[in-house]
Amino acid sequence: MTRNRTLAAAALVATLALTVSACGGTKGGGSSDASKGSSAGGFNAAVGKVLNPSDKKGGTINLWTSTDADSWDPGRAYYASVWNFQRYYARTLLTYDSKPGKDGLKLVPDLASAQPEMAADGKTYTFKLKSGLKFEDGSPITSKDIKYGIERIFAQDVISGGPTYLINSLDQGQGYKGPYTDTDPDKLGLKSVQTPDDSTIVFKLDKPDSSFLYLLAMGSASPVPQKLDTGSKYGDKPVSSGPYKFKSIDPGKAVELVRNENWDQSTDTVRKALPDVVKLTITTNSDDMDARLLDGSADMDFSQTGLSQAAQAKVLTDPALKANTDDAYTGFIRYISVVPKVAPFDNEHCRKAVLYAADTTALQTARGGSAAGSTYGSMLPPNILGSDDYDPYGFTKGKPDLAKAKEELAACGKPDGFKTNIAVRGNKEKEVNSAVALQSALKAINVDVTVDQYDGKLIASEIGSPGVVASKAYGLIVMGWAADYPNGSGFLQPLTDGRFITQNGNSNYSEINDPEINGWFDAATAASDPAKAADLYKKINHKVVDSGYYLPIVADKALNYRNPRLTNVYTQDALGGEIDFQALGVSDGK
């Protein structure tokens, strides 16, 4: 997922960081206790619990944003906030539970009447649909509409920009190019998906995949009525399968949702559909938007990526305003990759010397202080099953261990230190600040770091090219990562599986190609039990950390403001720590 607005400037927020609670490591920053609900506000009152629980219907939710959606077409969107918003109008076979924190990671039936029947070999999933499902025009939602919705994303020349995981899972060598060029009379020629009747859909995989059900919870697997599909223009007026439909879309200005009279509450155990109207105002003035949030004329920032610099300054020094904010984990880990292919980091002890010498408090400050993230000990974020408090280098203590760093330097044959280069996107201020912070910290062990700022638009051909990394001797690389779906495969595999290394657009910047790690990924993918898969991802995470391949800077957070009139407010881990839009209501009915 893409988050499309930057957080506050590092220097100012660092000054204000002491006013934010839970400013150390990750403990206490985002626990889940879904059994509790409270009408009492307060800082982080919507993190891990429901704030202002209510069943009151009516009124209007007023969302504002400084960045328009990438697309309202569920098959083309990639912004995290749009995926969240899709829960209003794009139902899927399974979706994430309407519960706070980690309890929201559970997949529950949505269009499906129950969890799928899985074949003994783990390669066939059969779903039965609920009865009474309808699109906004009153036509029935059938298994063929779901298949057609999935087929659309195979037409990447028409439906581009969204996630393509289902293509990788379902094409299986067919070379299917989507329904627009399909020679099948019904335009339903994708062989791996079968619809024996209108209420049954069957997915046949070529190998077991424990991540597959997460893919079916993405908007790219929502139903689309073939007769109303307008191809690349479908995002101008998507057809709703949920409790709200689009009344109007004015690109760059405003969006309005109203109730879908053909949605039947009896078919939907996920959504309460409390407000009558949901309005989104799009502005180019983020400071004005934040002012409206603080004066109560706007309810929430649609993007949920953090208040502006000026607004954070005001909020964090005013207890009454701060009580209406949450600082939830976003699912991102900001990190520095240590590249073993670049000497002297081919020696594990040299890698560990850097990690022990890192000043994690300075790195946290470079990102914006505790409001922007917690110091963190490993490479599996708090919202992913299998994450734990593993911290072998003591990163969450917030200070370097120079004695251990010097021991590692001696063990790697570099007692007097060495020189290396760190690559960083020049247009990312916080990343540059992070590089400089590490550069400064490593002087204490005589490691001389040159900061090389490259054009961020060239990421795929710069740090994404192992050849360029080698030629420029980039021993260290500053980056960040978040998963598109909340399991260890979605987060760790692009970063640590050697089979994901490419010569351009590479994300495995440390170029890890460990047969044991690769094998654990295969075993986790084949595991039918999510708990078993989570244990394997935990093992991968621990080995990657133990080997010194990555230096986590922070587990990312975003400080967001919520109008106190909102009801049923909670952050949801599967949505990247965002407040779940579809659950919201208003207490005043306005």
Explain the overall architecture.
This protein is 24% helix and 19% strand. The protein is built from 16 helices and 23 strands. The chain is an alpha+beta fold. It is globular and about 75 Å long. Helix 10 (360-367) packs antiparallel against helix 12, helix 14 (488-496) packs parallel to helix 16 (530-546) and helix 15 (515-526) runs antiparallel to helix 16 (530-546). It has helices at residues 10-16, 80-85, 143-152, 165-170, 212-215, 286-295, 309-315, 319-322, 348-357, 360-367, 402-411, 429-442, 466-471, 488-496, 515-526, 530-546; strands at residues 37-38, 50-51, 60-65, 94-96, 107-109, 117-118, 124-128, 193-197, 200-204, 244-250, 254-259, 277-282, 300-301, 325-338, 373-374, 418-425, 447-454, 474-481, 550-561, 566-567, 571-572, 578-579, 585-586. Among the domains are: 67-250, Periplasmic binding protein-like II (D-Maltodextrin-Binding Protein, domain 2), CATH 3.40.190; 332-557, Dipeptide-binding Protein, domain 3, CATH 3.10.105. Mean pLDDT is 93; it is low at 4-35.
